[in-house]
Write a structure and sequence with these properties.
The chain has 317 residues and is of the alpha/beta class. It is 27% helix and 11% strand. β4, α4 and β5 form a beta-alpha-beta unit.
Length: 317
Amino acid sequence: MRNVSTGGLLQSYIVTPKELSEALSKNAPTKISTAPRIIPLCAAWFLPNDPQGRTGRKVFDAKRIPSARFFDIDAVKDPDSPYPHMLPAEEGFAQAMSELGIKKDDQLVVYDTQELGIFSAPRVGWTLRVFGHPNVHVLNNFRLWVEQGLPTETGEDSSAATSQSKYPTPIINPEMVINFRGVREIVKDYGKEGSEGVQILDARSPGRFAGTEPEPRPGLSNGHMPGSINVPLPEILDPHTKAFLPAEELRKVFASKGVDPTKEIVTTCGTGVMAAALETALNEANFGPSDDRRVYDGSWTEWAQRVTEREGLIKKI
């Protein structure tokens, strides 16, 4: 996988609660320690139409891994874009990391909420990799962390505010991202003789994909891109724990959808959050070369506002 170090106490991109707990116990900070820190990074996020009105910050304050920092994906984004979760500029990313007190050599383990399981953590993990952070992992997952009786803490966190750093301005990796223009070319070429046959995987629910249930953002058309393949997020997760399925089961899911591991893959969803979970699952399954996978940052929220059914670029079934 691009931009993922296997150095330090954690050896794989996806880590278990036991692996993280043991690594944290061996990485307890001291005044004389020079070892890179292991920092849990909470990526909690809920859809804007969450029926219980939950927010990432609320659940972070209610229960979190001790010493965790909160990465707010609604704040660490391009502030000038009309779309919800577009990547920030390099300077904006560096500022956000500095305000979180994160250093370039920190080993970061991103995790989700107990309530939802795997959802938004892969997006933050992907963002960190896009900006070249050298040591990134995703916890599989916080629900299991809690169920296994591992330590948590509660209350407002002030650790980031008291330990700000000077994170260097990174260089974005454009090969991990695809923009609207690139996706539009793929969709318009779909089915044409001589086209490259790039596959678009959509992580939204079957109803949103088919156009039979509304999008969570009012006024946004539902449906899907012509030729795209629906791989709903729940199908790559264990139904009870909401953790990623084992690699072999993930391979079976992608194969059952007709995904070809020899062809380039673009992942998409509503705003680029669940799309990153698909990208992570493809990596965990070793399903095709990582260099042939890109995330559509704007995803359906951008697509549905820039194309129309009349153009033939939105399909409903």
